[in-house]
Amino acid sequence: MIDSLKQDLRKLKNIKKAKILAGFFKTGKDEYGEGDIFLGINLPTQRTVATKYKNLSLTDTQRLLSSKIHEERLVGLLILVHKFQKDNMNKKRIVEFYLKNTKYVNNWDLVDLSADKILGEYLFENSLEENILIKLAKSSSIWERRIAMIATFAYIKRGLAEPALTVAKILRNDKHDLIHKAVGWMLREVGKRVSQKEEEKFLILYYKTVPRTMLRYAIERFPEKLRKAYLNGKI
After folding, report:
1. Residue 211 in contact with residue 220, Cβ under 8 Å?
2. Which DSSP letter does residue 37 get?
3. What CA–CA distance (Å, rounded) separates 143 from 178?
4. DSSP 39-101
5. Residue 37: beta bridge partners?
6. What is the pLDDT of residues 113-148, one digit of tens each?
7. pTM as predicted
């Protein structure tokens, strides 16, 4: 089945788009996506392929995740999300599988399309402590740190801000731009889906010291006057 899947993806290859994606996802030397290989396939099409092969075994899913080709890894993760959502008996196994393979969840779209839907959902559904998130947030891997932040989206969607604010506190002075964006995004979602008051409790403590990108993302939905007050340090 995996050979057929790979053949399907190669039939959809778009060289022109692959070059654009390689630049967009920073695959150049010393960039965060260095060495990543793209086929040039859009996300809706990859979702279609993942649905077609949703019954792929975990063994073959592992082979996809370890691929050097970006779309193969993403389709593998989309299949894993499907398995998690449909297989109530093996959710723990799927989460353990995901955590063992975080080194392959190594670009921001791979994280953003899987972290909350697998890890975040599992932690929420099982009322587990967020120790896993804290461990990931303190990781030397930028991708594990982003996984920790995005996984909290599962809580935010249920009106719970605390896990996101806990991870955001750990990551508030992170050095990487992709973490700044992830933290700012989740803070913005706290304000949107939980309450602006909860978001501002965090911001009032840290807005003068967090990276500018993080702050801009976090306050994007604020009224203009309030947004400018934060940007000008006059709260």
Report:
1. no
2. B
3. 9
4. ----HHHHHHHHHHTTT--HHHHHHHHT-SBHHHHHHHHHHHHHHHHH-GGGHHHHHHHHHHT
5. 69
6. 999 999 999 999 997 766 999 999 999 999 999 999
7. 0.96
